Structures are given as structure tokens and as C-alpha cells.
Amino acid sequence: MVFLISRGQSDSEFNLFGNNYIRAGGVNITSGINLWMYEPENLFYRESAFPFSYSNYSTQDSEQMDLFVAKIASLYPGTRVAILSYTGLPNPVPDNVARAFNLLGSISIDRVGTNPNFCMIGVKGGSSAESFGNNATTPNKIKAEIPYDTFKLASTNTVASSLKIEYDTGGKPTIHNTNTLLDNYQLKALNLFVFTDSNPTLQTFDYANSDDKSKVQYILEGLPYGTKFALFTNGFNRFEFNDDTVNFLRNHCGSVAIDVFVNDSTLFIWYMVSKVGATRSFTEDVASGECNFLYTRTEDTSLRTQEQINEPIETDISVYSNTYNGVCDISVNGLTSIQFNGFAMCAINEVTGQIYYTRNYDISVCDPTQSANMIQDILDLSVGTVVAIGLAEPSVAFQYGFTDQLQFALESVGASRANEITQSLNYTLIGRKGSRPGSAYENLGQSPSRLYSSFIPRQVKPFIEIEAISEAFYSYQTETDYGYSSFKINGTYVTGYQGNNLIGLNVMIVNPTTGIVQELLNYDTQKNSSSAQAFADKLATLEVGTIVAISVVGGASKKIDFALSAITDYLGSKLIVDFAFPESLCIIATVNNKILTPANQKVLSECKSIGKTSCSTRFPLKSLFSNQVLGVNMCARSKGRANGSCQIMVNGEVQALGDAQGLNVVFVDNKTLVKTIKLYYTIASWETFLLDVQTLEDGVFVLVAINKSMPSSGPSNISAAKRMVFSLIGACKFLLVPDDGSYSVIGIKASSPGSAIEQYCSNGDNQICVASWEPISTTTTTTSSSDVDSTLSISNYTYGQSQANQTIYSVPLFDNYYDMCSPVAQLNKQFAIGNIYSNEPATNWENPRLPTSGRRVKALLIGLEYKKGTGTPLPNSTNDINEHAAALVNWGYVQKENIHILTENLTQVQVTPTTPGSTKTTVCGPTKNCILDEINDWLVPNFIQGDTFYVAIVGRGFKKSAFGGNDINSGLVVLDETLTYSDYSLTWESLLAPFAGIPAGVNVTFVLDCDNTLGFLPYLAVQTIYQDSVVLFSSKEGLAAPLAANTIGFLPFITKILTSSDRTDLPVTYQSLITQINTSDQYKSDASLSVYGNSVGDYPFLSSGDTSKITIYEYTMSVPGTNKLSYFYSRFTNLVGMTLVGAVWKAFAPDDSQGSPVYQYSILTRPVINDVETYNYDYSLDNTHEVDPVTQYLEWYPMGSVWRASSVGGEDLIPVYRCYFDGVTRRYRYSKTDVVADWNIEGVAFYVYNL
Predict the structure, then answer these.
(1) Quick check: helix, strand or coil at residue 862?
(2) What are phi and psi of 184, to 5 degrees?
(3) What is the pLDDT of residue 307?
């Protein structure tokens, strides 16, 4: 155990392993704040039995207090500290000092008052055990205690995963591991840090040593594929890279700046963080002055209950701030956004790494909307969302526009230094919504700053948050009903349902096990009673527990009578019976059996009002909780202003709040469910509310609802109390709520700001509601020593579980859930902790195809690592698949809702039918059944001509005799149903069988990054899709594709090409993909391309392989006696005697019925020189050609129709211009642009399709 006891100067204790290190241990404390910081990496303390640095700060000296505040702010997330005072703290505690204690996990620093004794054991950005009182009256009771195992430094704070390098103006670097300066490293001109899970290695290279020029490459080549490293220079002694090393860094580690550094002798600073085999470096820069970068591999180290977990996608995030040059760039998995004014913020999906948005906020007192917009966006983020923020050139009025509210909003994503930001400083942050203030990594300073994180969350949301928004209106002028309806899941609008205007009941049905949208329906109860009956019938068919969300538009109440009893009985609605025109209405509920379903399982959130109304519900997914897990169902509804009201329900029981104006609050004990009702209606009651919450046990549920209005904030101390009390229950949106607004909260005592479920409306006339089902603890765990007075000791443990080891990006709310998380048996230990998915729940549904819908690209990505079994594993398959998925989405090849992923690390729960009327919950991974189910049930249904299906596989192929006979089967090595052992039952024939019914006109692309693909093409050739199929093989058919050391794999190479910065001018074609791969030394095998149909693969990647369109190629021929070329256009690529320039456009085939024939004509070039006859060619939609306009008598010879084009413009069509040059005869060429040097433009000849 580690514990502190505050008594006096001579008899206080700091006890570690049974030894007291105060006085007897050589530590002499004094008055004021005694601070110890755990520093096991510090050379001075590394071998010590007491690895703590010590400092003291006088509470009587304001400058000393400022130093204390600055010290705490500068600490890295996860830093362990101990604090003891026996002479008291300032009374009252200054705001900045209180905030410093809050960053260490204190929640009761404002209650210390005149008590002389205080002690705490805390974590920067985490929680704490703290105690205060008077030792004279309660001797030996002022004690803070914590198990040593939870106090030890987390792995996220070792050099293995965290490194900061700061360059001074001379280019000399200093290395820091979190708070410790690592001055024992002897750096040279070039330095290589290799990050490992245990001990990192440092290699140094001398600028004067010729052998070192090659040694860098040799060492990197010897590292395993995927090993992460940092490479950085030191000072003016420039390291001279040889060409081979430069090529290796560029081609095998993804360097984008090494050439700049090598070719510019004025630059003496270069650094990069990357991994061997990367297609692009994670972060990299060159400079000639002061700068710094910080790298952290920030795995969430929160406590978790499962023995084995799977990893969500690793997301590489880089943020750069240079306020001097006015630039900020944020890069996520290689996709970079550059901003130039004020703050830039990027919101990122915590599971998939996909970007929600990147926005700019030019903060200024002159434009307060910029600060308001940034606050709104931060507070609206769903808990767990990853956020990257950087500062570009601020406005001159930046400092005055940077409000306390914005500072608080930044703290809700883990910031601790926001109060220090000025317009002259560079600032970067990578944080997470709902993490504790101080838990995010930040860089703040004078020099340009780059912050990089490979974010790997171990825990993600174990629930979904559903929001329904209804705006029903009636126009008395036009006598029409109208309005808007929206649904959100986890803060993201459901595809197709943002501002939807379908009249009547808009209904969303969600699977409670997986969180996937099953159906989106509309029932026009404004006009048709039959629609109301149809909805009632639908409710009767849904399984108990199914989530149903309703949002109305227009006069939905007019013909709803036939559905009223069903909505009441199946959904438990209490407002529907009074639903009247022209009200708006929202309901989110679970289908229940009116008699048999227990009250604590009937989740209900509903509200109605004239104008806009909205409700939200947090619903834990059933896949993560067995039926034995107990829970409580809670709901809070609010309406402000004069006609206001409120209601709070617990397990369906309406609490007796009365009708008094004010802040209505119900405290619900998380173990006994004992309820306490409170009303706060005066300015002074904010401090009472705060005191009441502070004295609650951690984990108690706090339900809040405004009736008419809440007390005004009043003086600064009252505002501080309001902010603190809402922060203590996890709320943050109170910042946006006026006193008479509508506002409801369901929070948990001691959770972090941004983690409560909240709903508000500034217009208090609009009613809002929140609801939640929360798991509850059935046992009581004491965390304090038995001799500690419970009234004086506050130990910050939630749901009876210690969270003192929470560090970087940990979300305390998720820990609360996982203390009770008990995955159902079918999931065993293979399921990741949280709602793991391959695409956003809000977009993970099959949007009905309308006749006007355009073509759609759907991608199924399969990665196998073979972690267990006898074969050699493929450790990077999952990462390769994840990076490819991010590239497809971020570069616009595939919409995020149209990608499904099957990997061992990204297993998803699915509901599988067994017998009629029953289902079972299983894991969806790269097994034979799951792969075929994904193709049959998701990929190929509901297609239209022109769609593209894309299947990419990273794994191993097989070829073996079946049952010992002579028949050779070949196929993909998958996993068995336990996701453990190899399975050889998925042959290429069975993989292709689901595509049998797809007609011509649907493009199907396969990427097979595996060996033993013999047999794939013969089975494909018998399918109807063969005419529109493209297959990219990692090697020649049937051969293995050995990956040479440190070369880029086949699929990663495709990813690199698709995301290269120079690919924007021309689309990437299938043929160019293979050409670039096979002509590069980065790929050591021999990739191949097979294209069926009338093409050589010269159409864009994942575009429709429409065989009715053919590619037209341009040829040139020299003409004796002139420097002007002759031009020829053909659909063939093998013509002799001419120079092939390349593909220029697409036209219709000559035998197609579309368009008009294009006729080809020729004329002999005059004069004929040396008996060499050459010809000029022309193309026209006319079946006759005028005589040569120069000679006025020579005629053009007709050669027939060669292809077809359109005579008029249209959708997707582009014009082709006829250009001419007059010599002895007129010569023609054709161009897609209307300006061609030295040629005259005659006009548009015809219209074709671009490549």
C-alpha cells in the first residue's frame, strides 16, 4: 500500500512498502504544500527505494502558488503525485490553485476551508484519494491510501511509447520521457530511437564516420516489418545521407521530407516518426530553428474485466502549430487539412479512425460566433470521440475572444493548459471527449510544435446514444402541414434522416444487441387511418427489447387513433394519449410486454410541445450485458419559461417533485436505489447543491430537470459552484442553457465533464427529455482504510472500482460500465470491450434504392493474421486492412456506410437465426460462414447496373487434395467458428458462388493479397460477372508472394498509390496500379492483373466496367518536311507505324445503339517526299466530308464508322473540339480543351465521356 497521513511536521507519514520516508527516510517536510512526484525514469531516483522527487510551495506567497500551478499544468498525463500539508491551504482556495488540484483528481479542494491537515494521492488527468480535517480533533484520521499496484507508473508513460524532443535555436535536441529529461543519452549527428514494448533502443550515427552512412539503412532493414521508430538529427553537424539510405527512407518508411533536408544545406533539423514498411511517415518536419515534437503511443490503460480483448483500429494523428507562419495542419491516417486562422479542430471516430469533420474557428472578440461555434461543436461530441486541435495564426483580438466557457469546453476533451494559451504561443492537443481534464497530451510553447499520437483505445462506448428531433408546423396562410424529422446515433445523423420532411410518423427500429438500424419507416397518419393501423401491426411483430424511435412531421396526430393503444401498450408511452394537432412529438422506447416486462427494463424517453422538441436515450448494448446484470431505468423531462414543467421517473415510477419553479434533482443510490428528492431555487442554493453532490458516494446517479427556470448564477463564487457541481456529475452543456431554458441531465457523481447524457433547448417553450438504462453494482467495495473517518476522507472510486490508474485518454464512464460488463456466453473472450464496428452505427443500414439513385460502390475487406495454430502469423494484416479502409473513405472511393470489415481484431457481434422465431448472438469474424453471409446478405443484394462490388483479401491461399484424392482444391485459409484455428473449407469456387446471379453491367473487383490463388480465374470465368471483373493478384497465379524484408505489402502499396498527393490530376486506373507496383523496388514480388471484358484495365479504379463504352487512344505520326504531326484516333492499342500517346476519352462501341456514328476520313499528305506517303485523318458525325478547304479540290477518303459519340451534351458528357492547321492541305486534331497552342479551334465536333 501507499498512504499519507497528515499530522504535523515531525510525525506525518509517507508510507511505501511499510517504510515511512518522512524524516526517518530522509525527507524533511515544511509548512505549505509538500509535493512528491513519482519519477522512476529519472536517473537520480531510478535505483532508489523511494523514486520520488520533492518540492515545497509556500501557501503564504502568491508567487509560490503560481509556481505550483505552473508545475501541475506542465506535468504529463498519468503523472503520479502525492501532496501533504499540515499547516492548511489558502482559504478560500484561489481559482487557479483549485483548478490545479482538480487536474490531479481532487473533487473536494474547496471544502478544506480552515482545516489544517490535508493529503492526497493523485494522478494528472486521473482520479485521487484525498482526505482533510483537523488532526487535533480527529487524530490519525487524515489519511489517503491507495494500493501500490495501481499507483505504479502506467506503461503509457515509458520511453517505449512516449518521447518528446525539443530543439533549441542551435538545433541541439533534448530528449524527455514525460516529465524526465533523459540526459544520459549521448546524441550524435543522427539518432535512431526504436520503440518496443519493453526496453527501447537508441542507435547514434556520427557525421564524420563514413561507415555510419550505410549503417542506418542496415539497422532499419534488420527491424521487423511494422516496427515503429523515431529518427532525428542533432545540431549543425549535418549527417550526410547516402542515396541508398535516402531511397530506403522514402520508399520503405514513407519519408516525405528527407529529400528536402538532403538538398537544402541551410536546414540542420530533420525528424520523422514512422514504421518499417510504412507508405507514409506518421509525422515529419524539417527546420532551421527552434521547434519541438512529442510522440505518444497512447493506449487506454483503464481497468478492464475481460482477460483478452481485441483492438479497434489504430489511428495515426498529427497536429502541427506554427502561429508565426500562420499555419496549422492536422493529419489523420495521412489525410491532411491545413488551416490558416485561429483554431483548427478535427473530430475523429474512436473506433474506425474516420474523420467526422475538420473545422476552423477564428476566435476574436470582434466575432463572438466563432468561439460560440467551437464551444457548441465540442459539447455536441459524443462521449469517447477523439479530438485533434491546433492553433494557426490567431486574430489580434484572439485573447479577448478566448472565453472561460471555451476553456471549459477544451477541458471536456482533456485539456489542462487552455488557460495559458495566448496569441503568441503555439498550441496542439490530442484528446478525447469525456476524459478527465489533464488527461490529454498537449504542446504549448514559443517554438513551432508538432504533436503525434498513434491512438489505440482499449475501451469504446458500450452503448449507443439515440436522439430523435421533431419539428412539426402548420401554415395558416397556405393551410398546409410541414416540418422536419431527424435521428442521430452517437451524435451522428442517421443517413437520410437529417431534416427529413416525410409527413406523419417517422420510425427508426434499432437492434438492441448490435446497435444496427434495422428499418427506417414512414406512416402517414396525417391522411390515412390505415397507416396508423399498419404501425400498430408493426409494433406487434417486434421482439421485446427492440428499440423504437419516433419523430413526427406535420399533422401526424390527425389520423393516429388506431395506433394509440399499441404505442401505449408496447412502448409504454404516457404522452401519446394527449398528442394533439399541431404538436411535435418524439418517443424513444424499447418494445415491452405490458404485463411481463419488469419496470427496470422499460426504457422510455418522450416529449411533446408546440414547435421543436427532442429526446435522447443512452442504451447499453445487450451483447455486452448478460440478463443477470441488474440495472435501473431513468428519465428526466424539462420545459422552461412561464408554462414550464418537469418530470423525473425511476423504473417507471414518477417522482413527487411538485410544481415548484427551479432545479429539480433526484439522487439515486447506485446500490440500493434509494431516492432523495431536492429542489434548488435560489442563487445561494447553487452552493447547497454543490455541497450535497460532494457528500454523495461516488457512483450515485444524479437526475436534473429544470421547471420553468433554474437559479441565476449570480456572483463569481456562485458561477464557480454551478460549474463545479455540473462538472462533478459529468455535465457540460449547461454552458449553453439560459436560466429559463429547457434542460435535463442524467449524470453520475465523480464522472468527468462531457460524459453525462444531456438535452437542452435555449427556447424554454420547447420540451426536451433524456433517458437511460444504467447497470448497477450489487456489492459494496470499500476503498478506504477502516480507521478513516468517512466524513473526512473522500476516495474517488466509481462503482466500487479504483480508477487511480486511469491515464491518457481514459474515459471514466466506460470504466463504470465495464465493472458490470458481462458478455454473453456466445461471445466468450473474443469480443472487444465496447461497441466495435466497421462503420458508424448511424450509417450502418441499407438505405432503400430509389429509381433515381446513382451507382454505389460497396467494399468488403477481409484480413487474416492467423495468430494461433501452426503456421507463421501475418501480424500486419489487420493494420493493412484498416489503413486501406480509411484510404477508401477519406479519399472518396467508397462512402463510409458502404464498407464492411472482417478481421480477427475487429470482430463484431451479430444476431444469427437458428430455428424459426429464435436467434443466437455470435461473433462475426473472418470465418467461412461470416464471409459468405456478408457477401450473400449485405454485399450483393439490392444492386443496380453500374454498381461496383469490391472485395480485398489479405491472408493465405491453399491448394490441397480433398479427402486424400486426386482432385486439387484451392481457396482461402480462413478461421474456424471459434476464431482460433485455420479452416480450409472456403474454396475459391464457394467464395465466388454468391456472385452467380449478378448480370453484366456490375463491376466486381477483387484484390487477392495472398498466395496459392491457382483456380480463382477458372471459377470466375464461368460466372456471369466475368465480363465486368477485375482481379489484382499479389503474385503470378498460383505462386506464393514472399514479402522481402521491409518491403511494402501488396494491399498497402495499393493504399499508398490511391492516397498519393500527385494522383489528383488523373484518375488511378487498374493498369496504372499494376504498372506502378511492378516498376517499383518497394515491391519484390511480381503482381499481375486480369481484366475480363473489352478493356485492358485502363478505366479508373472502382469505376463501372461498362463494356458499352470503349477507350479511345491518340496516336501521332511525323510528317516529312514539317514539324507538325499527324493525329490518329483508335480504340486499339497495338497499331504499328505510329506513336501511341495514350488514352484520351471514352466513346460508345461501334455496334452500340447509343449516340451517333463517328466516321473516319483520310487524305494523302502533299507533297509526297522521297516517295513516302503519309496521311492526315479527320473524324466527323457527318457521313460525307467537304473537299479540302486549302486546295479547294482534294477530297477526303471515307473509311467507315469507327465508334459512336453524342451530337449534344448531357450528364457526364464532355465536348471534344476540332482543331486545324493549314499547310499544303488542312490537317486536323482533336482536344478536350478549347485552347491548343499553334492550332486553330473550329468548334465542338462531338461529345464523349471522360476517362
Answers:
(1) strand
(2) -85, -10
(3) 36
- Write the DSSP assignment of 244-296 as a string of letters: HHHHHHHHHS--SSHHHHHH-TT--EEEEEEETT-SS-SEEEEESS-EEEEEE
What's the predicted TM-score (pTM) here? Answer: 0.78
Domains with residue ranges and CATH for the chain: 2-155 (no CATH), 161-297 (no CATH), 313-461 (no CATH), 462-628 (no CATH), 631-779 (no CATH), 857-1093 (3.40.50.12660)
Angle at 96 between CA 91 and CA 97, to 5 degrees: 50
As given in the structure block, the three cell numbers for residue 656 are: 413527487
CA atoms within 13 A on the CB side of 1142: 9
DSSP state of 1063: G
Task: Show Cβ contacts of residue 1242 under 8 Å, excluding neighbours closer than 6 positions.
Answer: 1217, 1218, 1219, 1220
Give the phi and the psi of residue 931 in degrees, each rounded to 5.
-65, -45
Distance CA 821, CA 854 (A): 43
Angle between helical axes of 877-890 and 1050-1058 (0-180°, round to 10):
20
Backbone angles phi, psi at 803, to 5 degrees: -120, 25
How many Cβ atoms sit within 10 Å of the Cβ of residue 448? 23
The DSSP result for 1197-1249, as a single string, is EEEEEEEEEBSS--TTEEEEEEEEEESSSEEEEEESSS--TT-EEEEEEEEEE
HEC letters along 1144-1191: EEEEECCCCCCCEEEEEEEEECCCCECCECCEEEEEECCCCCCCCCCC
1223 CB-near residues (< 8 Å, 6+ apart) = 1122, 1124, 1190
Residue 1206 CB coordination number (10 Å): 18
Please report the pLDDT score of residue 1109 as a whole number: 74
Bridge partners for 960 per DSSP: 969
Residue 1167: asked if its preceding bond is cis (omega within 30°), the reply is yes
pLDDT for the residue 785: 28
- The backbone region for 10, taken as left when phi is positive above 0, alpha when psi lies in -120 to 50, beta otherwise, is alpha
pLDDT beneath 50: ranges in the chain: 153-160, 300-310, 779-806, 824-832, 850-852, 962-965, 1038, 1040-1045, 1063-1065, 1094
DSSP-assigned states of every residue in 683-740: TTHHHHHHHHHHTSPTT-EEEEEEEE-PPP--SHHHHHHHHHHHHHBT--GGGG--TT
C-beta of residue 472 within 8 angstroms of C-beta of residue 554: yes
User: Are residues 468 and 487 in contact, defined by beta-carbon separation less than 8 angstroms?
Assistant: yes
Which has the closest alpha carbon to 200: 125, 268, 295, 271? 295
Q: Identify the pLDDT of residue 159.
A: 38
* Residue 597 DSSP SS3: coil
DSSP state of 938: I
1199 Cβ contact partners less than 8 Å away, ≥ 6 residues apart = 1159, 1160, 1161, 1162
901, three cell numbers:
470489415
Give the integer Cα–Cα distance in Å for 603 and 117. 46
* pLDDT value of residue 651: 92
Pairwise CA distance, residues 761 & 610, whole Å: 13
Q: What is the pLDDT of residue 918?
A: 52
Q: What cell does 1036 get?
A: 503470378
Identify which of 838, 810, 1003, 1060 has the alpha carbon closest to the alpha carbon of residue 313: 838
Under DSSP, is residue 64 helix (H, G, I), strand (E, B) or coil?
A: helix
Q: What is the pLDDT of residue 423?
A: 86
The string of DSSP letters for 414-470 reads T-S-GGG--TTSEEEEEEETTSPTT-SEEEEESS-EEEEEEEB-S---SEEEEEEEE
DSSP 1027: G
Q: How far is CA 77 from CA 40, 123, 156, 431, 793, in A?
A: 15, 8, 9, 11, 25
Find the Cα–Cα–Cα–Cα dihedral 827, 830, 832, 836, rounded to 10°.
-70
